[in-house]
């Protein structure tokens, strides 16, 4: 990650804690001039990750998908870049609607050519849909406003028109006996339906998700081929996952 990206991730992480910060304060915390931090804020605002009002930078509302992108931004970007290394120019992949997955799609749009992305994320279509070097297929279905994604039987039927090598998904939690878990049964059902049309399932998630348990079983450990996470993954869990043949990458 370059200096500019590191600094912009630092700005987002500061705002993730405070919600709002003066531009002069951000410049001091980042050790740069006002001119430099204003350039960073302009770029971040253009990407929809924050807004600016009268000398302040303000993070988006709690239920805004862009705020989820801003949380732990530097970690999520590293996960996205590692996941993108599994994708070649010309590939067709399925990517779901979680924040790490949105950043993966953004990374693909910046670094790959002629990749087709099949997704249930309406937010993703808006976020990267204007990129000229990718082809994005947005599945239909019942719209969930909080995640800005579609779910349900229409989504399942649309996904059946494709067969891809890899499906990239996030997760809400983990249970050693159950595997990966989710919080919303409709989202989990949709992820499982999408995975049926892929040869391999790749989970992108922060290691903190391994400290909590979702209420709905998402994927058992023998249904997942890759896990991409950060260095906070406990060694015991890593060995457990490896025992099921899951290729674990920590970044």
TrEMBL record:
The name this protein carries in UniProt is: Lactose phosphotransferase system repressor
Function, as annotated: Repressor of the lactose catabolism operon. Galactose-6-phosphate is the inducer.
Report any Pfam family annotated for this entry.
HTH_DeoR
Record domain HTH deoR-type: where: 4-59
Classification via InterPro entries: Carb_Metab_HTH_regulators, DeoR-like_C, DeoR_HTH, NagB/RpiA_transferase-like, Tscrpt_reg_HTH_DeoR_CS, WH-like_DNA-bd_sf, WH_DNA-bd_sf
The record's section on SUPFAM superfamilies has: NagB/RpiA/CoA transferase-like (SSF100950), Winged helix' DNA-binding domain (SSF46785)
Q: Does the keyword Disulfide bond apply?
A: no
Keyword hit for Acyltransferase: no
Q: Which PROSITE patterns match?
A: HTH_DEOR_1, HTH_DEOR_2
List GO molecular-function terms, semicolon-separated: DNA binding; DNA-binding transcription factor activity
State the UniProt keywords alphabetically: DNA-binding, Repressor, Transcription, Transcription regulation
